[in-house]
Amino acid sequence: MHFKHHQIDKKKWDKCISSSKENIIYAFSWYLDQVSPKWEGFVLEDENNEYIAVMPLPTKKKYGISFLQVPLFAQQLGVFSIKKLSTFEFKAFLFLLQKRFKLISNYPFNTTNYEEFEIEFEEVFDKNTALKKHKTHHLSLNKEYSQIRQDYKKDTKYRINQAQKQNFEAVRKTQNDDIDLVFDFFEKNVSLKNGISSQAKQTLKTLFKILKERGLTELFYIKNNQNEIVSGVFFVKSEMFYQENNQNYCTTKWIYLFNAAKKKENQKDESRRWFLDKFIQEKRSLIIVNNFEKQSKSTTYETVLDFESAQEKSVVRFYESFGSKEKPFFVVDYNKLPFYTKAIQYLIRIIRQFISK
User: Fold this and answer.
1) Percentage of the chain surpassing pLDDT 90?
2) What's this model's pTM, rounded to 2 decimal places?
3) How many domains is the chain partitioned into structurally?
């Protein structure tokens, strides 16, 4: 069933997300409210009207046409379920998506959807035109740090060792306006040419405030030996608790949501590489303490660093250099609007470009 934003029971929605195997922070109602304020959803209910499977729909409207567009700071969405869905049930979500929206701009499913229903995706969508295969990279922190570092690429080990000689210092930040500087670094060195909207900064600030209040974020700035801030990194904590085959699972995922550096001309920035190694060491140490306190035969604990990889080859190589593993997910992207509608859209864009000159 398709629910408009005002029809969604957010308590039921969040209960479904938190109990699902696919659980990831981007899909909670309070997170979606910030990145896509008018979001809607597909909902599968049981006989008691409880939500047993949901699918967030970040809708937008332009030129009178309702369409889906992936929001900023939400790499994975898709279907979330408190039970194992059948092939028929999962495909029903995909068919509903096709029927409801004639225009979809890079809607991302989650890695668990890919793992469990890869064939179903390819049966519903044309993999040559509508279906794209993207990937993120996960690094399990459940091994000893020495074992994790052993899997680093040789060049990465060398660069980290060299960076340590620069006496970098990581400073944890907590104030809402602290996020401004890392975005300013991004804006100056990456610019907005990659499609980052002008509202991105305010969205990031609001997210940081809300996540901080919930104890789900960590922001660091890295200083060099001249006490100059050279880069910033922003992590989000996403926790999942679910049951499968009478076994409880608890996974803590640290998502590398946003980062940027104050690069100088002809100078490489190694501060973030250095910091990621320190972050891995810190979280690995906490795992040892926490798992000792939580030991239980009926619960399996895991901690993961999710690099939230972009698709650029250079970025992928950087994250792979830490020994991370590729985790694919599908992205749906198509335009099935009638020809005359496409022509009108094109004409409007041309007129607006002409006016703005």
Assistant:
1) 56
2) 0.88
3) 2
